[in-house]
Amino acid sequence: MIDRMILAAIDQLHERRVTRIDMADVARRVGIDLDVARTMFKDEDALDEAIGTFGIARLADEMTRALVAVPIGDDRASLIALARAYIHFALENPKLYCVLTTQVLQPRQTDSIARLYDASFVPLVRRFLGETDCPPSRRAVIARAFLYGFTDLALEDHLELWLPSTGDSEADLMATVEDFVDLLLAAGPGNRNGATKDDAAEAEARPGATATPPRPA
Fold this sequence. Notes:
By secondary structure, the chain is mostly helical. It contains 12 helices and no strands. Helix 5 (75-92) packs parallel to helix 9 and helix 9 (139-155) packs antiparallel against helix 11. The longest helix has 25 residues, at 44-68. The protein is elongated.
């Protein structure tokens, strides 16, 4: 019954595009009296929190399983796996994803479960980006912004406006994720102008060429 109430609340929030649960409507959707509903969730805030726990637990499980399948030490594959799992979760659970990210749990409160979960991935992503032994760059936040925006494009069926279709939307979507990860890794934490140390050395070795050193981090 608790899961049925959570699912009914998700449907309500998604359908109405509201940020506040109507407990009486949730009870009606489930087919129980309001008084009975309040024995399971004393108020709307308690049901909000339950939605967050319900959704984040499922997203965390999907992303964890994706990481476990990646060989240890393969940072590129780890980043791709995280992104794929996130996008697949959203596409398989569009109502829940939209409620988690754009309605009930958009954090005005700094201790919301969605915000805390997002924060827990910051050091992990920076580690996969090779930023454990140097000052962090902006690549992690760029990665997060891409993932959020790209997922939104997929959910709204706007990808075909931006991607040349090969006839396989799943392959197009995943290939774009791989391309983006490669761009992030090619930039490197200390190469914000796009030049690498190898680029600079190669340019300096050319006759008459002047190398452009990488910008310091």
